[in-house]
Design a protein that fits this description.
Radius of gyration: 22 Å
Number of helices: 5
Helix content: over 70%
Length: 104
């Protein structure tokens, strides 16, 4: 029963993270797969049984969902726009505003 609950939780988060395109759900799904893998390892009574195989599948899914969490994030800007540096005067204004904050 607990194995079914962990499986439903991890699979539900996996499907919802791709369906909704939410990065945080993918990382939560990786955590769900990790818990399912640990629980299935505790149920294993002999090497190479069904629970042992399920544990390796869950560890594979932890890696996949961790990488997918980075890959499915929404990008509003291109990489060049994100790395674009402003004019030096903008930087000086920023530094001056921080200096006023610290009363320097």
């Amino acid at each position: 029963m607990i194995l079914f609950a962990f499986t439903t939780f991890a699979l539900g988060l996996t499907i919802s993270s791709f369906w909704l395109g939410q990065q945080i759900l993918a990382f939560a799904s990786a955590g769900g797969w990790l818990f399912l893998g640990i629980y299935s390892l505790s149920l294993s009574v002999a090497p190479l049984d069904l629970y042992w195989s399920l544990m390796f599948f869950c560890l594979f899914m932890v890696v996949v969902m961790s990488l997918a969490g980075v890959g499915i994030r929404k990008r509003d800007k291109s990489l060049e726009e994100e790395l674009e540096v402003g004019e030096p005067s903008d930087l000086e204004d920023y530094v001056n505003s921080k200096m006023k904050l610290w009363h320097l």
